[in-house]
Design a protein that fits this description.
The protein has 255 residues and is an alpha+beta fold. The chain has helices spanning 15-25, 44-49, 115-134, 159-162, 170-180, 187-191, 223-228; strands at 2-7, 29-33, 53-57, 65-69, 74-78, 91-96, 99-105, 141-146, 185-186, 200-201, 213-214, 217-221, 229-234, 250-254. The protein has a single domain (2-254), classed as Endonuclease/exonuclease/phosphatase (Deoxyribonuclease I, Chain A). The strands form three sheets. A six-stranded mixed sheet has the order 3-4-2-1-14-13. A six-stranded mixed sheet has the order 5-6-7-8-12-9. A hairpin with a 2-residue loop joins β6 and β7. It starts with a strand and ends with a strand. It binds one DNA strand of 15 nucleotides through loops.
Length: 255
DNA sequence: ATGGTTGCTTAGCAA
């Protein structure tokens, strides 16, 4: 089972790249974040013509997540189902065979201490409670997404400069740790304990060309899925060329 | 760098 995760920063701006990505990698499921459109503007036909099924949770202008699957999914659900009022479309899940695939676009948080920062921390706590309510760590669960958190200093190009800043603050890292403590492991770090690899580079100031990146896009998995993990890699080529997203896709292959 | 770039929407916000 090959699963890919990509913050496309507008699916319509990235449509040609996304379709070409499917042709090149042929993932069983591609989890998208930042669609930046509602269903009325989502390019269903292009993905269907490529042989994929689309499950979307769109939003006008901001956010929006989707599962693009080579096979029909079951039990597709959007949001956390906790009754909390939430206008943001940031979470979708479905079942691909015996694997629960969960796709999240964690709030950016803007800056430490901002209203959006506390919204982010609360949203992460809601996601943790959702996991605890709906799954067990013995289930086959793969949780992917743009977490907007660099798990450790190894995941940051300038740890001293980023210390305590948004994407790196201790409260954010603690919230991620609490999610992992449900029973999820960072698949990239499992395979590469010491490797520096980034998934996001700021558009500004030649961030990619200078490799000023952060590893904030993660594939987490429960122990039975970690046992099945064969390969995991970042497709840096997608950050090159004309009109890239500011994020590169990450791909994991499970037996 | 209270900057720099991109996308959506059309001047300002979000990232």
């Amino acid at each position: 089972m090959k699963a890919a995760c990509w913050n496309v920063n507008s699916i319509n701006s990235r449509l040609d790249r996304a379709v070409a990505f499917l042709g090149r990698h042929r993932p069983d499921v591609l989890c998208l974040q930042e669609l930046k459109c509602l269903e009325d503007k989502f390019p269903f036909d292009a993905f269907r013509n490529a042989g994929y099924h689309c499950y979307t949770h769109g939003q006008k202008t901001y956010n929006g997540v989707a599962l693009i699957s080579a096979h029909p999914l079951t039990d597709v659900r959007a949001g956390f189902l906790d009754g909390v009022k939430d206008d943001d479309s940031r979470f979708i899940s479905g079942k691909l065979g015996d694997v629960n695939v969960l796709c999240g676009y964690i709030p950016n948080g803007q800056s430490v201490g901002a209203d959006k920062y506390y919204f982010k921390l609360n949203w992460l706590d809601r996601m943790r409670r959702h996991l605890e309510a709906e799954y067990r760590n013995t289930d086959n669960v793969v949780l992917v997404g743009d977490f907007n958190i660099a798990p450790e200093d190894l995941d940051v190009y300038d740890p001293a400069g980023w210390r305590g800043k948004i994407l790196c603050s201790q409260k954010e890292r603690d919230a991620l740790t609490a999610i992992k403590e449900f029973g999820l492991e960072d698949c990239f770090r499992n395979k590469f304990p010491q490797t520096v690899e980034y998934t996001w580079w700021d558009y500004r100031s030649m961030g990619f060309q200078k490799n000023l990146g952060l590893r904030i896009d993660l594939i987490l998995a429960t122990p039975p899925m970690v046992k099945r993990l064969e390969r995991i890699y970042v497709d840096r080529d997608e950050r090159k060329g004309e009109k890239p997203s500011d994020h590169a896709p990450i791909i994991a292959e499970f037996i």
